[in-house]
Amino acid sequence: MIDELVSAAQVGDFDVSPDGARVIFAWDRLGDWDLFTVPIAGGEPHLLVGERGDDRAPRHSPDGARVAYEGAGEGGAADVFVVAASGGEARNLTRAAGSDHLIGWLAGGERLLVRADRGGKGFDLYAVDAVTGEGDALTRGGRVREAALAGDRMRVAFVTEERGDRGRLQTIDLSLSPSLSRSHSRRRARPARGPNVLSPRGAPSWFADGRILLAAFDTGPGRIGLWAPGKRAGNRAIDWQAGFSPEEGAPVASPLGDSYARLRYGDGAVEVRVASLSSRGDRAVATAEGTTRNVAWLPDTREIVFDRESSRMPRSLLAAPAHVSSAEAPAEARVIVYGAARLAPERLAAALPVWVPREGGAPLPAWLYAPHPPRARRGVIIVEEGPRGRVAPRFAPLAQALVVQGDRVLVSAS
Q1: With 151 labelled, which of 212, 252, 270, 299 sits at a CA distance of 20 to 30 A?
Q2: CA-based angle 98:100:106, to the nearest 5?
Q3: How many CB atoms lie within 10 A of CB 42?
Q4: What are phi and psi of 320, to 5 degrees?
Q5: CB 257 within 8 A of CB 212
Q6: Nearest to 296 by CA among 253, 256, 359
Q7: Distance CA 212, CA 360 (A)
Q8: Using an 8 Å Cβ cutoff, are 226 and 277 in contact?
Q9: Could you give the CA distance from residue 156 to residue 208 in angstroms, rounded to a whole number?
Q10: Digit-coded pLDDT (tens) for 251-282
Q11: How far is it between the farthest Cα atoms of the chain?
Q12: What's the pLDDT tens digit per position in 99-125?
């Protein structure tokens, strides 16, 4: 039990298959980040990719037969690899100098959209052949920092760095770019320039029809606007929320195009909320202690898949019903993959927020882990390594190992 606690694994990036039957996710269960696959209903995860080094950011091909992902190249920088969804030998597609970060598959499954730093000149977008690895540059200037594909996999929204702390939202229609065909034309589709924005929060997210695009931007102190740029929607704000935390990430559009999911934090807990485009209100579909970084819809929109980490749970993969009436309480999220497979959560302690007095200064925030029922062998132990921040406590393996032994543990939260 102690060994399992100290070496507790964490679930990382994930991607739902096009048919909604399985999830591929990164897991550091074996020491490095490797890729595993598991049925969406839950079950025993199976290793898909376990190469030396970290493997992250899996993305299914449009037909679900292949998986692209980021892995460590020969020089240690990130490269893009492709492997069959059933497993087998992976191929390194991008051996060029610099880091390559996968965005997703383009229409037809013949090319990949990659954000790459070629020659140390900054990041641009490239369409990379999924067989040969040859790439066509889609942008210039080396200022691309976030990007997302539309549902048709032919339109790209991206944010470029501008002066100061601002960015500009832009889009490209790749169907207008002959360079993506097998011809040798080098003409490129020109990006359509959107609004100049302040501090974008994560990648933008397309709706199904490709004409409405969600992005979250700072619009004033402690406020967030969810914007729908484009000819049809204009640049109007369709929703607002106050007290936004950077950890809450960007909104994620529903595949059906009628709603979007977002996160909201408060009192050490996170809510997964769904909002409709036709109204200004939203509703919580799942709530629990902890933090969440990634959210995805199943293709049929019946469930939302998300990760969660709390004081009692290593980062794990869960799902919750996406449709809850206003009269219903948020549903109990079901676990798809528990971060540490052999860990018994009922034996772990929840972290209690406390303030530690100090002489001549303001009290310091901390988290207190205590056995239940109380059976402390020793007094409070201060552990230097552990959760940080007051939003919600992260999983602290060493603290939990000491609690199992009967100790009370105080962990700094500053």
Answers
A1: 270
A2: 145
A3: 16
A4: -145, 150
A5: yes
A6: 253
A7: 55
A8: no
A9: 13
A10: 788 888 778 888 887 766 788 888 887 766 67
A11: 74
A12: 889 999 999 999 999 999 887 788 999
d(CA 39, CA 299): 15
394: confidence class by pLDDT, cuts 50, 70, 90: confident
Helices then strands, each counted (H, E), the chain: 2, 32
Give the residues across from 37 on adjacent strands: 24, 46
Q: Edge-to-edge strand order for the sheet containing 91-92?
A: 55-60, 66-72, 78-84, 91-92
CA dist 271 and 248 (Å) reads: 10
Backbone Cα Rg of the chain: 22
- Please, is 141 exposed, middle or buried when counting C-beta atoms within 10 Å of its C-beta (0-12, 13-18, 19+)? exposed
Cα four-point dihedral sign 81, 180, 140, 233: negative
| 327's tokens | 């009269």
Q: Which regions of 28-143 does DSSP assign to beta strands (E)?
A: 34-39, 46-49, 55-60, 66-72, 78-84, 91-92, 100-105, 111-117, 123-129, 135-137
C-alpha angle 313-319-322 in degrees, rounded to nearest 5: 135
CB atoms closer than 10 angstroms to residue 385: 11
Q: Which of 88, 22, 20 is nearest to 51 (CA)?
A: 88
